[in-house]
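Dear support,

I submitted the protein below through the web form. The confirmation email said the job was done, but the results page showed an empty box. After a refresh the structure appeared. I'm attaching both so you can tell me whether what I see now is the final result or a partial one.
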Amino acid sequence: MGMNGSTMLEPLRQGLPPIDPAAVSSSASCALPARFEAVRGARQFTRTTLRQWELSDRFDDVALVVSELVTNALRHALPTETLRETQEPPVRLHLMRWTTRLVCAVRDPSHDSPGTAGESDDAPFPDPSGAAESGRGLFLVDSFSDSWGWHPLAGTLHGKVVWALFRLA
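What the results page shows now:
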């Protein structure tokens, strides 16, 4: 995780419930290609990471939330990716673990708040079901995680991060 990764997490720490960054015992991240098959890759990455952290019992809930967040992010990333090939993959999944909580965060290239996908008139491919779809996705995120939120990326990074928090027993 280069410099880019650590600067990306600065505002993430601010946007989260008060947690001591020093107490992060482990974190893992993976870049996802702007293709819908990336959701499967994100789930596999989540499965492997949770197994390493001995949290496999939380996989179902976490994977469901990861799938929704990644799907939402890809919906924003796909048009951008076709316009210009960037070196930096447009979507990135971060998993971070503290003693009593787990956070999954997904970065995407859009500044729009989560759930507004497909609603703007100037969207290149207006998706009539877009609003309902991402609305349902965020409802699932809200139901399966203990809290969630989002914020724009700071500095030279474009886009936003959407995060979800799970309390660990």
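Response: this is the final, complete result; the empty box was a page-load delay. The mean pLDDT is 77.
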